[in-house]
């Protein structure tokens, strides 16, 4: 046990007063700790950054009372991404009680945060240059600054991407590719910017023959001003960030009318970028790293302020708690990895992984196939964006379940197992919604079906959790494979999207088998996969336009219906229920899966979005025409021509579908499917699980009705989410 | 079949074909047809041969079990071919149009997964620890492929990391074949270990030879276009050797060619010439020889039986085809 030595200047020394450091100092001071906040400059001061704080960060600013100090900050409600040669896409914040994101110059933001830390009781020491850490017996005991030793039980290093302290502690090394670099400037006289962050990637060189791991941004700081900049994710031979920056500005000026008259305001600034966060390297005895010093920047969007704030707050929490014995700060690593698992690729593969994901994003930017929609969202959309869990599309299953059924804890366990299983192979994949924590885990999903079905036998069998996780992975693998188009879009180029889909599905299937190995469930899982393949083959061969009845029959054997049916059957069988019970649960699962899919399919065609956040553009692209669309087609044969054209508009599809009687028929069909499945439940013993399944079925059918009602309310079927289709522009960065 | 003359092995290989086709039967005829496309064309069946030869070092053999294990491992391999060909956009395989060229990518991927599931079903029925080993090999295959793809177009790919990929993506199934054959025949631990080492080294030698062939062989021998790995950004051993050991100016030129976003046939031909001219093929061949020697010395630790001579012969044959 170490005690604060008498000469300690504080309980905690925080080095660096940017958002991470100031936030840590604030929270420590609020907890009654003595904090010394050191910075080499004096505030206010300018800083190179994109200045954007997304929703996750806004909540932390609000908690500190910072928003009141930032009246001029420009609200932003989403992100518009332009990838070379593709039409832009928008990721809008979901409507809800949360506040807007903000763009606020770091000169203002950091000053406000430092003042709040001081007001809370932190002792600010400006113009202090920290030379090094002071370590005794392998424990950090303070820092040396200005020729003096400053002692404290805990040091929080928030000294930025180039963190000398983390390097001294052996917690960072320059990655093989060298650090990335970003440059930014403020510009004025920009016109027509709205409340969206603009993001362009990747930048290419003049002849567009070289692809650079890079991005550009233009973030509005006010009605006519913006922060514009470029980031180069890794060092690339012959690529210079200043040339990239100049070319990017030129491109904006000549290619985008909004930027035609822009003038620079103030100096250009640059800073290194680090994306190498690893939970294993965020602390040492007596030392915690926060923000950029821990390498916490999104490699895809450069977002860093919200990570900085959150890691600062968590560092404060852990420092406070471990002050008496700060040798073991490993809880900080656990907190960070639990919170940010999937945001950062760690280890030696990081650079290659990022490159692969960039290629996939680039290759599939126009595609609405499920796996690409998921990856795009996982990589580009900050938390709180419209979509999973926040748009009201995902159903929180909990209120539908009988209180006595008690599967919540098991569902969370399945989620943890999934994340644990996939994380070692590819942390990024754990951000796919089905694998991430939160609302998706508690939604109506195959794992829930497995657990409910197991309630009809011995539900305490230990292999049930693994089985539930394996069924989820198999389902995702199937979803990934359905992303493989029948023909490559461009014969002459690598098909990154297809490669990704195949790789992801193979890794997930391998992991699913691994989960099944212990319980001798491999043959069971193999059988599900075989059945899925057989049905998929039939579906592919049925062509684009089978009769609606045939489609419905195929639907019952593929996709969610097959998955939920298998989940019900297997859950029952593995828990020892008899075959008749397993069959009834299989039917219930099939009915549930069918209703879920009908709700998704009809939602898109009526101008809404499905559970994956996709709109009617997906229907233009898919080789498999949905049941609702086939019904509409029967009434309006013109739709076939619309589907055959490459340049059809989703709006027109929605308008035409709204004029048919398709919606009412789908609602009726869903109601009947749910009723049939419910009737099957009547053969089972009454109890919490039976009642829960009945409630889920009723809910799924009523979701179809709700979608139909919402579609009818918009009248002509005009889209509820305006699709983002603007002119296509290519971003290149001139000659390098 | 000059690469294996061991009588029991040859006999078993003859019985394997029908079992493979039978295993891939599906109630859906179209699926049966697509899923049998590759096994119907034959192929060397190297991995089953390893299962059979390895089973000669144990006291007992249940013919049916052994055949099933060999079929399962061959099917695991075949399943990866379906998926690899789609990913690499290979036009042909074993001299015939590739599955996706004939039936489309979606069908080819689905059939590959079906083949995989059938293999797992067979493996699941085998005695422990074979199913667990197979599970590890399957994961290694998937991760190896992932690692290869994420290093596509990476001219900075290190030879050491390349070997890591080869161990996973190629050597793991060779090793599994040998270990499964040994375990199912009740071979002792020393034999299992020696056979495992043999399989792993043989796999690495095989991969090196395969890489060399991609730059040296002509289309007729290869059954596909030479240099196709280069076009797909899959830098094999000769390419990595040329990048590491070639003359400075040539290295730089090669790097520049490989950095092109979409190289044309001329660019690729020039890159191939640079690799051939750099002496890298000799380096890569030396690596293949090194692992072949390792395989042979592992085999020498086995009792002297006809199967041991067959394993050595098989290794020599594989490495010499690269010349």
UniProtKB/TrEMBL annotation, chain A:
Coiled-coil region(s): none
Disordered as annotated region, ranges: 713-736
SUPFAM superfamilies in alphabetical order: FAD/NAD(P)-binding domain (SSF51905), Terpenoid synthases (SSF48576)
Example of a GO biological process term: isoprenoid biosynthetic process
One term of GO molecular function: oxidoreductase activity, acting on the CH-CH group of donors, NAD or NADP as acceptor
Location of the FAD-binding domain: 10-174
Pfam families: FAD_binding_3, polyprenyl_synt
Gene3D superfamilies in UniProt: FAD/NAD(P)-binding domain (3.50.50.60), Farnesyl Diphosphate Synthase (1.10.600.10)
Polar residues: bias regions: 727-736
Domain of life: Bacteria
InterPro entries documented for this protein: FAD-bd, FAD/NAD-bd_sf, Geranylgeranyl_Rdtase_fam, Geranylgeranyl_reductase, Isoprenoid_synthase_dom_sf, Polyprenyl_synt
Name of the protein described by the UniProt record: Geranylgeranyl reductase family protein
Organism (species): Nonomuraea phyllanthi
């Amino acid at each position: 046990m170490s005690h604060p030595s008498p000469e300690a200047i504080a309980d905690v020394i925080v080095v660096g007063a940017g958002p991470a450091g100031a936030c840590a100092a604030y929270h420590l001071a609020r907890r009654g700790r003595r904090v010394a906040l050191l910075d080499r400059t004096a505030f206010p001061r300018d800083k190179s950054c994109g200045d954007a704080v997304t929703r996750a960060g806004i909540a932390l600013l609000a908690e500190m009372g910072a928003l009141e100090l930032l009246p001029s900050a420009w609200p932003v409600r989403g992100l518009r991404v332009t990838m070379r040669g593709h039409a832009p896409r928008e990721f809008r914040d979901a409507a809800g009680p949360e506040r807007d994101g903000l763009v606020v110059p770091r000169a203002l933001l950091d000053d406000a945060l430092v003042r709040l830390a001081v007001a809370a009781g932190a002792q600010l020491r400006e113009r202090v240059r920290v030379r090094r850490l002071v370590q005794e017996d392998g424990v950090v005991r303070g820092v040396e600054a200005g020729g003096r030793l400053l002692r404290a039980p805990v040091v929080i290093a928030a000294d930025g991407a180039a963190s000398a302290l983390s390097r001294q502690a052996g917690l960072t090394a320059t990655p093989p590719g060298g650090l990335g670099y970003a440059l930014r400037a403020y510009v004025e006289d920009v016109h027509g910017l709205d409340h969206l962050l603009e993001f362009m990637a990747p930048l290419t060189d003049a002849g567009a023959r070289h692809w650079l791991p890079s991005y550009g941004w233009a973030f509005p700081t006010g009605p006519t001003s913006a922060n514009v900049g470029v980031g180069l994710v890794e060092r690339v031979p012959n690529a210079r960030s200043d040339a990239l920056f100049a070319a990017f500005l030129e491109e904006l000026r000549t290619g985008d009318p909004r930027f035609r008259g822009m003038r620079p305001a103030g100096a250009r600034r640059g800073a290194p970028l680090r994306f190498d966060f690893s939970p294993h390297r965020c602390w040492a005895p007596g030392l915690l790293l926060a923000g950029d010093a821990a390498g916490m920047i999104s490699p895809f969007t450069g977002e860093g302020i919200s990570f900085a704030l959150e890691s600062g707050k968590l560092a404060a929490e852990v420092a406070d708690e471990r002050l008496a014995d700060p040798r073991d700060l490993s809880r900080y690593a656990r907190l960070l990895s639990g919170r940010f698992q999937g945001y950062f690729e760690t280890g030696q593969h990081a650079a290659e992984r990022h490159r692969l994901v960039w290629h996939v994003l680039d290759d599939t930017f126009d595609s609405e196939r499920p796996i690409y929609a998921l990856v795009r969202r996982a990589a580009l959309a900050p938390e709180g964006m419209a979509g999973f869990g926040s748009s009201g599309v995902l159903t929180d299953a909990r209120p539908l379940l009988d209180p006595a059924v008690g599967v919540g804890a098991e569902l969370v366990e399945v989620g943890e197992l999934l994340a644990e299983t996939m994380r070692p192979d590819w942390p990024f994949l754990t951000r796919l919604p089905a694998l991430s924590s939160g609302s998706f885990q508690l939604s109506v999903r195959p794992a829930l079906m497995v657990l409910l079905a197991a309630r009809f036998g011995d539900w305490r069998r230990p292999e049930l959790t693994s089985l539930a996780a394996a069924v989820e992975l198999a389902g995702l693998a199937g979803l990934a494979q359905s992303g493989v188009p029948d023909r490559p879009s461009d014969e002459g180029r690598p098909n990154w999207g297809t490669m990704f889909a195949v790789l992801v599905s193979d890794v997930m299937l391998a992991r699913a088998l691994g989960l099944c190995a212990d319980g001798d469930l491999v043959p069971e899982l193999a059988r599900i996969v075989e059945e899925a393949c057989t049905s998929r083959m039939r579906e592919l061969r049925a062509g684009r336009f089978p009769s609606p009845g045939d489609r419905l029959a195929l639907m019952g054997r593929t996709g969610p219906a097959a998955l939920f049916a298998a989940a019900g059957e297997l859950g029952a069988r593995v828990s020892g229920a008899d075959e008749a019970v397993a069959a009834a649960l299989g039917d219930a699962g099939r009915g549930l899966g069918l209703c879920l899919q009908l709700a998704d399919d009809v939602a898109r065609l009526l101008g809404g979005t499905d559970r994956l956040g996709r709109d009617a553009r997906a229907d233009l692209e898919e080789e498999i025409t949905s049941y609702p669309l086939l019904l509409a087609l029967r009434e309006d044969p013109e739709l076939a021509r619309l589907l055959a054209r490459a340049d059809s508009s989703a709006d027109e599809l929605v308008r035409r579908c709204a004029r048919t009687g398709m919606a009412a028929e789908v609602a009726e069909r869903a109601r009947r499917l749910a009723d049939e499945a419910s009737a099957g439940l009547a053969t089972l013993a009454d109890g919490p699980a039976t009642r829960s399944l009945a409630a889920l079925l009723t809910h799924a059918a009523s979701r179809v009705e709700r979608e139909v009602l919402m579609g009818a309310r918009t009248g002509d079927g005009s889209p509820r989410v305006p699709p983002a289709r603007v002119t296509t522009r290519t971003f290149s960065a001139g000659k390098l | 079949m000059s690469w294996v003359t061991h009588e029991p092995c040859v006999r078993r290989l003859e019985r394997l074909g029908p079992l493979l086709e039978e295993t891939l039967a599906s109630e859906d005829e179209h699926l049966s047809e697509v899923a049998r496309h590759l096994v119907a064309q034959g192929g060397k069946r190297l991995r089953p041969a390893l299962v059979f030869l390895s089973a000669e070092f144990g006291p007992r053999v249940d013919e049916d079990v052994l055949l099933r294990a060999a079929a399962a491992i061959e099917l695991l391999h075949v399943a990866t071919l379906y998926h690899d060909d789609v990913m690499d956009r290979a036009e042909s395989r074993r001299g015939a149009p590739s599955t996706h060229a004939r039936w489309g990518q979606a069908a080819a991927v689905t059939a590959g997964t079906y083949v995989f599931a059938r293999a797992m079903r067979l493996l699941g029925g085998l005695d422990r620890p074979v199913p667990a080993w197979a599970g590890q090999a399957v994961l290694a295959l998937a991760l190896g492929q992932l690692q290869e793809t994420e290093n596509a177009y990476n001219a900075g790919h290190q030879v050491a990391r390349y070997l890591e990929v080869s161990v996973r993506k190629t050597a793991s199934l060779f090793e599994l074949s040998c270990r499964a054959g040994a375990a199912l025949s009740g071979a002792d631990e020393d034999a299992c270990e020696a056979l495992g080492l043999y399989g792993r080294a043989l796999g690495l030698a095989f991969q090196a030879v395969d890489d060399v062939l991609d730059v040296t062989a002509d289309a007729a021998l290869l059954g596909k276009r030479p240099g196709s790995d280069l076009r797909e950004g899959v830098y094999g051993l000769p390419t990595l050797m040329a990048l590491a050991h070639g003359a400075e100016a040539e290295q730089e030129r090669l790097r520049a060619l490989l950095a092109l976003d979409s190289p044309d046939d001329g660019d690729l031909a020039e890159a191939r010439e640079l690799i051939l001219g750099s002496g890298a093929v000799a380096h890569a061949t030396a690596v293949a020889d090194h692992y072949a020697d390792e395989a042979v010395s592992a085999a020498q630790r086995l009792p002297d039986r006809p199967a041991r001579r067959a394993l050595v012969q098989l290794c020599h044959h594989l490495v010499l085809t690269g010349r």
